[in-house]
Fold this protein.
Amino acid sequence: MRLQDITSSKPVTQLGLSAARHLPPRAGYGLANTIVRLIASRKPQLYFVVQRNLRQVLGPEVDQATLDELTYRLFKHAGMTYYDFFHALGLSAAELAQVMPIPGRVLDRIDDARATGRGVLLLGMHLSNFDLGLLSFGAHGLPVQALSLANPQAGTHILNELRAKAGFEITPIAPESLRQAIRRLKRGGIVITGVDRPIANDRELVPFFSREAYLPLGPARLALLTGAAVFLGACHHTPATGYVIEVLGPLEMVHSGDRQADIYNNTCRFAAFMEAQVRAYPEQWMMFHPFWPENEQGSTT
């Protein structure tokens, strides 16, 4: 059994949720760091998956010591984000809005877009505490449909239930949920989905850190089909500022008259935003599956 299967299992998710709710930050972070040290010493398959992703981000010139250090820091950051997310689930809406504030100018842009009758498509990426960012949007009372991964693991089901309690309508990606998202956007509603997890049979190779990676085409297709205002969002953390949300938008889609080319070219624009964010905070990129397809020589560890 892979480490991902264990950490995404229902019992482990429930245990983490219970511990984070009852442990104060010092104890919670301490427990998370203990788990991180175990991962760093045992080096399960997941460790090398993360390290291969980081090697592509940092470039071929990166030395092994630097790569090991950054991999350790990434898992340490992940432990902190899991604790903070689970711990925040017991907070009030007002308290949540303070943990990861959404800049007022971003909320104003969303309101301005909706005032014209346009829907709003919020596209997020797996950087730092992206789940806490979702809760922050929910705390502002924005009615949101969230398109999530289809057929999630048992532990993810629990997280989706918690997200739903925070005010989101969680809809795993399927033909009916996509039709629902289209209707919502055309009626001026809000839809949020990830922009860095490819969906089988709906993906394309796009340049990303000097190598082609599979990215989902659905976000660009949704935007072009509905005329929604597109916002790209990411969060990061620094000791000085805590969690910060960065949002780009509204981003107008490129329309050339060639539908397939427009989908691809706008997906490339999304990729450029993501690359800039990952380049700035590589140790906060919560990508725990192989992001680039294997090349002919195979991947390196």
The longest strand covers residues 229-238. Residues 3-88 form one domain. The chain has two domains: 3-88, 94-284. The two ends are 20 Å apart (CA to CA).
